[in-house]
Design goal:
By secondary structure, this protein is mainly β. It has 3 helices and 17 strands. The chain has helices spanning about 1-20, 50-55, 65-70; strands spanning about 25-30, 70, 75, 85-90, 95-100, 105-115, 120-125, 130-145, 150-155, 160-165, 175-180, 195, 210-215, 220-225, 225-230, 240-245, 260-275. It has a 17-stranded mixed β-sheet that branches. The structure holds 2-acetamido-2-deoxy-beta-D-glucopyranose (2 copies). InterPro entries: Beta-glucanase-like, ConA-like_dom_sf.
Length: about 280
């Protein structure tokens, strides 16, 4: 009986999450951008000089529409006990690319493993006081093992709600996590991170609609319009930034990338319905 009560409370909560109203909307559609541009993938970053010298790709990513809403990151993270490989974000790993068949365009975030570090990609929202939101992203992930594609909200390491695709995972697995995922002794906290099988025969190498609804009491994840996962653990309690990234650090979570390998997070559109604190 207890479990029935719990389920009905959950469903009431999900209904509430679906009914939440939002005052603000960010929407970017990368599918039909200027035909003459974006004909090829930028060169992979093989050293620090290339990394820091790289400009933002001109076109949509330097337009006011994009720049007003998002910042492409260039910070790095050094080697540490849990990150055996250095990570360095570069402008050159964020670009618009045309589909192979030439029909449409999409945003790409790339991670490339060179001899010295993982050259990674991160895009952060300019608004950093998102307080409850419905985040919807149509995306695809491809490439080599050892990288993590992230779509998430972030305030700090203890206030973070994640959709993550690990390229070492089978192509029908996805990770839904509310941080903190580890306790003070470094052990996994039960219920913080869920390794879920994607429903409806979906695989992350195809385009899918990912959605995270963050309300006061619940985190609810959807995949292709269907309820996928619910958490009451670790609901972020602080105003947050929205982040997309493609990264690796050779650690336990991502695994390591082979030198010379790459992985890609492709995005057709992003919609963020949100309120502010
Ligand atoms: C970047 O590296 C990947 C993996 O080796 C490769 O498939 C891709 O073609 C490279 N990109 C360019 C522009 O050379
Ligand atoms: C969020 O941050 C606050 C401190 O501002 C902390 O007390 C709390 O444990 C963090 N995590 C969650 C899930 O609220």
């Amino acid at each position: 009986m207890l479990s029935l009560v719990k389920i009905s409370v959950f469903l009431a909560g999900v209904a509430a999450a679906q009914e939440a109203t939002y005052a603000h909307r960010i929407f970017h559609d990368f599918r039909s951008l200027d035909g003459s541009l974006y004909t090829c993938e930028p060169a992979n970053i093989t050293n620090d000089e290339q990394s820091s010298a790289a400009p933002v790709q001109s076109g949509y990513l330097t337009s006011d529409a994009f720049v007003n809403d998002f910042g492409i990151q260039t910070w790095g993270a050094p080697v540490s006990e849990t990150s055996p490989v250095r990570k360095q974000n570069s402008n050159q790993n964020v670009y618009i690319e045309r589909d192979e068949d030439g029909s449409s365009t999409h945003l790409v975030l790339r991670a490339y493993r060179n001899e010295d570090f993982i050259s990674s990609a991160e895009v952060e929202s300019k608004v950093s006081n998102i307080f409850h939101a419905s985040i919807r992203v149509r995306a695809r992930v491809r490439g080599d093992a050892g990288a993590c594609a992230g779509i998430f909200t972030y305030y700090d390491d203890d206030n973070e709600s994640d959709i993550e695709i690990l390229t070492r995972d089978p192509t029908n697995h996805i990770r839904y996590t509310n941080q903190p995922g580890l306790d003070e002794d470094g052990n996994e906290i039960p219920g913080a991170s869920t390794d879920a099988v994607m429903g409806g025969g979906a695989v992350w190498t195809d385009w899918n609609d990912y959605r995270l609804d963050w309300t006061a009491d619940l985190s609810v994840w959807y995949l292709n319009g269907k309820l996928a996962h619910i958490k009451t653990y670790g609901i972020p309690s602080n105003p947050s930034t929205f982040i997309l990234n493609m990264w690796g650090n050779g650690g336990v979570w991502t695994g390591d990338m082979d030198i010379g390998s790459a992985a890609y997070l492709d995005i057709e559109w992003i919609e963020i319905l949100y309120n502010t604190a």
